[in-house]
Amino acid sequence: MQAITRLRVVRAMIAALLASVWVLRVSALGNEADAHEHHHNIPLYIRSIANYSVPDVVLIRANDGRRVQLSEELDDNRAVVLSFIYTSCTTVCPLTSATLADLQGKLGPARDLVHVVSISIDPEYDTPARLRDYAARFGAGPQWQHYTGTLTASQRTQRAFDVYRGNKMDHAPVTLVRPQPGDPWVRLDGFASADELMAELPLVCKTRAAGQNNARR
To answer: What confidence score (pLDDT) does residue 64 get?
Structure first.
């Protein structure tokens, strides 16, 4: 609950900042009235499309302690929602994980169609046991898996997805979504909400809606 409250506060702060930038930008173009009319609709993240090559690395899946090939974990015929976290983080990571917990709840039974992946950027501290405790704090189900490994493997993975910043304290909020196998990745820099993440999973949401309709009959 505290993490979700903090998420709302941070999102409000970013909204105010982005709104100011939007007003300044459009005002410079001579259309200030239009800027004020639309700034409330500014998203709290930057969306882009990217193609990433998954590195040939072995990570440790904290859920069961097994060593696994990352490429195989991400290629299991499910949509993927990928984030990078570390368990001692007190700012970005709890907010990101709270959003993923919210997404898990909103998906309902359709959550089994989505592989939620959280990879530690501090693997020397984040043992499988610590990651399991962290996952439990956010109520992670079996479809939401946390990974650690060697520092080299973690950094190679971070670089492959263009999230490596050198120092864990400098990491920024990034969530990556691959709607279905073979699709490009949707990169969301900032704090996307659970509803906004769901919007990037149209096939999963369609299945979810069909299930809800069948349940009403």
So the answer is: 96
Buried b (16+ CB within 10 A) or exposed e, 48-81: eeeebeeeebebbbbbeeeebebeebbeeebbbb
For 116-139, write each residue's pLDDT tens digit.
999 999 999 999 999 999 999 999
Q: Give the whole-angstrom CA distance, residue 19 versus residue 25.
A: 10
pLDDT at 205: 75
Q: How confident is the model at residue 20 (pLDDT cuts 50, 70, 90)?
A: very low
d(CA 49, CA 29): 27
Q: Where is average pLDDT lowest: 9-18, 152-161, 173-182?
A: 9-18
Residue with tokens 């069909």: 210
Question: For position 44, what pLDDT does the model report?
Answer: 82
CB atoms within 10 A of CB 216: 5
Domain positions in the chain are: 2-42, 46-216
Would you state the CATH architecture of domain 46-216?
3-Layer(aba) Sandwich (3.40)
Q: How far apart are CA 158 and CA 104, in angstroms?
A: 24
Distance CA 113, CA 142 (A): 11
